[in-house]
Structure prediction request, 659 residues.
Amino acid sequence: MSVPVLSLRGVSKRFGGVRALVDVDADVHEHEVLAVVGDNGAGKSTLAGVLAGAHRPDAGQVLLDGRPVVLHSPAAARALGIAAVFQELALVDDLDVVENLFLGHETVRGPLLDEVAMEREAWRLLDQLAASVPTVRDPVRTLSGGQRQVVAVARALLGSPRVVVLDEPTASLGVRQTAEVLNLIVRLRERGHAVVLVSHQAGDLQAVADRILVLRLGRVHDVFDGDASYEDLLAAMTGAVRPGTPNRAVRR
Amino acid sequence: MSTQPAGAGTGAAGAGPSGAGLPGAVWQRVRGGNGLLPIVAALVGIWLVLGAVNPAFLAPENLVNLTLQSAPVGVIALGVVLVLLVGQIDLSVGSLSGLAAAVVAVGSVSLGWPVALAILVALACGVVVGLGYGALSTRLGLPSFVFTLAGLLFLAGVQLRVLGPLGSINLPFESWFVRSVQQGFLPAVAAWALVAVIVVTSAVVQLVARARRRRADLACASLPQIAVRTLVLGGVLAAIVAYLYLGTARGIGWSVVLFALLVVVTDVLLRRTRWGRSVRAVGGDRRAAMLAGVPVRRTVVLCFVACSTLAALGGVLAAGRLGAANQGTGGADTYLVAIAAAVIGGTSLFGGRGSAWSAVLGVLVIQSIANGLTLMNVDQAARYMVTGAVLLLAIIIDMLIRKRREA
Ligand SMILES: Nc1ncnc2c1ncn2[C@@H]1O[C@H](COP(=O)(O)OP(=O)(O)OP(=O)(O)O)[C@@H](O)[C@H]1O
Ligand SMILES: [Mg+2]
Prediction:
């Protein structure tokens, strides 16, 4: 198989006494959707944060195209082509939709912002996601939870990053928007992007995942194929069955 | 891309849906808490009351004095607006302005430097202090309330040391600096030409923006809207110039021109550049800004540097206006007036919300009250109490807006 775009090797991260990640190995390739599942507190968001430059691992390495990189900040990760939707969305409530979409990556004409280009691009992205945002010039605090989430997803897609990390991107979306986001993930994969999808929704995973990484108490418990049954996943997540028992599991 | 002064707020001008009429857009801004209109209304109300009680207040020459009194502390308040916008505060702006005044006086008089060099050194002091504050805030994570309080004391000490045992140094009256600050006024012809240039520029900028937006199929301001805005802008500016040059009134002083220029430039930077956007983002939600890839530290450091440098410039102007630097320059209530002005002008103490214009409006409110009450022979005690009450009112309004937005 090709060299993974993004890999973690032996990554550990602790917050005070909590071991959020312990010796985690993971790979995501081009043309691939890697799903990450696990119970609450399993370390999924921490894993996403390490991939997106929001957390620095205490031990272990992040590899980009097989070469070790240090992701000092989300901006540094973004510059290397890794974009993320964080679970808490990370939108600035006082800024409007366009301002949030382009925050940190504004389009400029000479020294000044190019509001026209940004606003047009904003509408294009939001239409692509079938977002029902009434106007892009209202502060995002006036949007519903689902609308905010669509804005956060749209922001991750700006500039066509190589790796897109999505931490529960459909958690508060309606049926139609969820379908659009999943569609979009499939399209991203077709276009050759690597996608890391953290999700709780079994439907999401079965629809789009190529491989499913199960985290338990900060450790990689198992890696399944995309067509693993929900029962198998549930068993691995909660520990109801010993690891390796499901016959479709692909042990590493 | 509009440069209209009042009511511009921090929102994108002309961004409202094309269907909403002008009154609708204005009302939205007021409700959104971004609007400067309530403060403009309050200022006009204060002027009417003070003028009714003592007509001398509204005499053109007195309003000229009012603008001259407002410029130095207004420049300081402009810097305070910037630190407030990133969610920080600087309590030491008064001491720093006093230190800058002392540096100018000692440098140009005692040490015999050229005045320009002394001014540059004073401004450099501001830059250095701002860099120090930025480091304390972003590297050590100290709260700015605490380290700028320390700075307030420390810099006041340095000011006394620089001034030396005399404690007061007069600047020579014939120096170009003192003359231009005290007696330099924009000639009436130049003032009118400036009004014309501003109005035409504003109209052209709005029309160009409108054309681009139309081509891009985006909502844009209607031609009548642009016409009304331009007429209002032209009317306000023409009224100001006509009044300040009425009869024997001296008109617009150079320090006032400098202050206005700084405000316009800051306003454009805040609303139309990447830096300005990061300032509002960091003040609104620091963590979200960081996750979005905004260079948070650099933004915060730059705001501290800009604030300290503007405070130093304010001190330089104060020294020029007084023709001297002494132990009282920048002391007493200077920093309180500057911070109060920013808040009264509508910049939030909680970060993220405000405008460069709030420095102008806030300072005019405070100085109008001070000036008007002095004309009425009301003593200092009453002036402090009235200003304190106005500040309290402004903070209550700020709090209410914040609560309603979070509800
Ligand atoms: N910034 C932090 N400071 C302290 N502890 C943290 C921090 N972030 C995460 N943790 C801890 O690390 C562990 C893993 O958290 P993480 O957010 O990665 O879980 P998760 O799998 O995303 O959970 P959820 O499904 O609820 O989103 C938890 O025990 C959590 O308390
Ligand atoms: Mg999580």
Q: What stands out?
A: The beta strands of chain B are 168-170, 324-326. The two ends of chain B are 32 Å apart (CA to CA).
